[in-house]
Amino acid sequence: PQKLIVDVDTGIDDSLALLYLLASADEAEITVLACTAGNVPTAQVTENNLRWLDVCGAPLIEVAVGTDGPLVAPLMTTEDTHGPHGIGYAELPPSTRTVSDRTAAQAWVAAVHQYPGEITGLVTGPLTNLALAVRLEPDLPKLLRRLVIMGGSFDHPGNTTPTSEWNVAVDPEAAKEVFDAFSEALHPPIVCALGLTETIEMKPHHVARLAEIAGSRPIETLSETDEVGIRSAASNPMVRYFTDAVRFYMEFHQAQGEGYLAHMHDPFAAALALHPEFAEYEEATVDVELDGTLTRGTTVADRRGFWGRPPNAAIAVRTDPDAFFDHLLERVGRFAAA
Ligand code: BDR
Ligand code: CA
């Protein structure tokens, strides 16, 4: 199977990304699960990850804890979006697992040294840990097989400021260091930015389908038209916990005027880490604005060579969301059923 380092700020959509990867054991082996501050503080992210691993009956995986916050900026978190503990209304049982002695950055470096050229890195949170890892090992971009990032927004409104996307906005300095360093990578990192991930809309009928595949008692109060909220009644624990998490996210999106749905940014990035063929890409040179009074944290893509610098991003620009959801729900549903 494909070896992975997975770096997350779990997070409701990070949770489903993790479930998907654990459900993909035939194809993917998580060598390090790194925890970064973002949606919620690092300690809470760590707790959430340990608990999800238990819920999923995952094998022993190195869980490495990152720093308390960004390289330079003060930490901002978003409990409004992801719930007080980062996983919506889900209340997962406490885990007995322990964390690694290595920091997240050290774990990244150790893993790429152990398996040079073999690991795909997936980051679905701020890029703090990876930036620190590159400071420790400047050759890291050449030692990774490929990097996949959920982050940034190009020619599309932001979700944190008018032009910035959350994962980059939380730690713009880290994002810039990573994009700069990865101009030396074997392949330009795959970048899943908001313009595409906001087309990946999970609706109640998707959750019902997941429950059905898992052989779980159906979700209560689900209407055919998706207009009525979902209530957690699933008999399958994994489906129930996920439903409890995602309905918080759907309520958040509804309160934003986007409808009763939830954008599956991070699961989409996870799917591209295993199946890049789910999207089409455009190469570009990406940099991050650090100083703008209005635009700090904004990603800028040079597609016409103005800067005279090599491409450091393969921006995912087109996909078929239905095909993606079929793949995701089948895989996670069957895993939950097992
Ligand atoms: C990103 O921000 C986080 O809140 C989500 O988990 C996702 O990684 C989307 O901008
Ligand atoms: Ca995330």
Automatic annotation (TrEMBL):
The keyword Secreted does not apply. It comes from Rhodococcoides trifolii. It holds the Pfam family IU_nuc_hydro. Keywords: Glycosidase, Hydrolase. InterPro entries: Inosine/uridine_hydrolase_dom (IPR001910), IUNH (IPR023186), Ribo_hydro-like (IPR036452). One of its GO terms (molecular function) is purine nucleosidase activity. This is Nucleoside hydrolase IunH. GO terms for biological process: purine nucleoside catabolic process.
